[in-house]
Predict the structure.
Amino acid sequence: MSPRIRCIVIALVFVALLPAAAAQASANQASIMMDDDLLVYRDDNTASRVLTQMKTMGVDIIRVTVLWSVVAENARTTQADLNKLRGRQNNRLREAALRQNRRFRPTDPSTYPVRNWDRYDNLVRSAQNLGIRVYFNITGPGPAWAHETPPRAQRSLRASWKPRPAAFRQFVTAVGRRYSGTYRDENAGRTTLPRVSFWSLWNEPNQGGWLSPQWQRNSNGRYVPASPAIYRKLHQAGYQGLATSGHTVDSDVILMGETAPLGSNTPSEKNPMRPGLFLRELACVSSNGSSYTGASARARSCGDLSTRGGLAANGYAHHPYTKNVSPLVRDSHRDSLTMANISELGTLLDTLSARTNGAIRSGMPLFMTEFGFETNPPDRFSGVSLQLQAKYNQLGEYQAWQNPRIAAQAQFLLRDVAPVRNRRPGTKAYWFTYQSGLFFLNGTAKPAAFAYTMPFIATPHGADPATGGPLYSFWGQLRFLPDGAPDVAHIQWKPKDNSTGWVTVGDPVPVDFRGYFQAARVAPSAAPGEWRSLWVRPDGGEPSTSLSTDGS
């Protein structure tokens, strides 16, 4: 059952004593959701239904991966692949490939196979009709012809190995032109496609599966960080492509980063790099805070920052996963950046901005563009319990809301992804896919689905100085409300022994533009009790409420 239909709040009271909400908390934090499996790789009817469901749950923005290799499929055939088509039985295919090669212009979206665009075209139309903003993450891996060839020992990394920045610039130009707001679709009645004005360039560049090599051996056989320099060139080239097609930081939201939160202690071509190190290397700043010079600077292509310009962006995207531990628990390594220490990200970016004379913009807002927790069930190898997923998701939302620099918090995914069917059921390999959805694969809602729609946190703060009664503070959101819609939340309490029913404590609490609210209340009794949040339906129907914990 849809959380919008039930309109239920899961009121989770956390054991940890949360700090009082900051006076400068994010008053306009947007809600991002990502689910490429449902929105991009299914049929249009599925995408339309999912968008409607997301809208009713309160999603403001959808993050969509524009995968270079998907859009460029069959756009250009390499000579090696053409050679495979020799022979009478393949003549027709070979001639078609040669014709496509002759017409292909990598900056011209009309020269790509039109069906490769259809999934994105239809999605941006449907999202516009529902008032959901589309955010395109343009990323590799790209087609084979757009990457350098890795050494034989690194052939497993062929898909992500050294993308060619010039080719990426051309591809981004094509995407930007198609979604400039003036481009007429080749099919669908030649209608003008909606403009997309929210972008990021590459995904998780500090992960070897998306960009490699992460590290590379120098002439002395020692590993030197490589992915930051590669990404620097890709972002610079990608921004040129956006600007050429009419998208700049003056008109659009353009994010840099999309970094993953954790990394490895062992440098290798594939092993992920922690984001703190990755960012310092991106800015050509050593661990002691000094800028690289001489051979160290040349090994990192640090001249890019002067010859090619800075990293043009007006926001920074990050994926602050804490894996299967609470978002209050920080990773032990200082260069990890999870939800638990997310405030350090802004500080680091500003420090690097000062060190690079603004090559990285100072004061950029932070966008948390992936976040979530896998659950057990169904994944008994990587998941947390269903109750902990709902609790941790809400806690992460609250932490983001408390940080005035965070402009958005994300949920990854709406629905669990199917397991790997060709693996033995019940094994870790079978559950290799992501199970962080708010719904199970069969569409059944997890507790986190209801918590997402109307999050609510109650925090004990000892005794009220005036009455001596138990004092609580509350934070929540009516996420499903249209932005700016006036409404109120009600706070209720009852004794845990059920000797009396629920009673409303205090006046109704007004919500802000995004539906957030805060309140403080004294429990009516010192006896153990439960709190819940209540929303009164404007149509006069039965109010919607939630079950709650006792706050112990």
User: Anything to note?
Assistant: The chain has two domains: 1-21+422-552, 22-72+114-421. The first strand starts at residue 11 and ends at 13. The first helix runs from residue 3 to 6.
